[in-house]
Amino acid sequence: MYGKGNDVGLRRTDVTVHEVEQLASRIVELIDEELPESALEKAPDFFESVKEKTLAINETVATTNRATSGQVRALKNMLGAVEAWQRG
Q1: Structural domain harbouring 54
Q2: What string of H, E and C letters represents the secondary structure of the chain?
Q3: Does pTM top 0.70 for this prediction?
Q4: Which of 18, 23, 69, 85 is the most exposed place for a label (fewest CB within 10 A)?
Q5: Number of domains in the chain
């Protein structure tokens, strides 16, 4: 997909596809299994959006077999946000 000339402006990262999959799985697991019901009730649209974006990033990374720094940063930020809701 991304040849030498096509990835201009995309910054690569040392994070592997497997590590992206782990981040994405953790985000989905937190939302689906570990968040308090009260959090899900207060911000259902937020959690649905996070889950959709997480799955989309994971799919793109799996398809291209590459992760950009922006994708990794977005996943880490979303994980941090979901963990903050989990802590209350």
Answers
A1: 44-88
A2: CCCCCCCCCCCECCCCHHHHHHHHHHHHHHHHHHCCHHHHHHCHHHHHHHHHHHHHHHHHHHHHCCCEHHHHHHHHHHHHHHHHHHHC
A3: yes
A4: 18
A5: 1
Report yes or no on 33 lying in a domain.
Answer: no
Dist. CA 11–CA 50, nearest whole Å: 23
**Burial of 7 per CB tally in 10 Å (0-12, 13-18, 19+):** middle
Euclidean distance between CA atoms 31 and 73, whole angstroms: 19
For 25-77, write each residue's pLDDT tens digit: 999 999 999 999 999 999 999 999 999 999 999 999 999 999 999 999 999 99
Residue 64 lies in a domain: yes
What count of residues does the chain have? 88
Q: What tokens appear for 56 in the block?
A: 């989309």
| Separation of alpha carbons 60 and 39, rounded Å | 28
Query: Which residue type is seen at 24?
Result: A
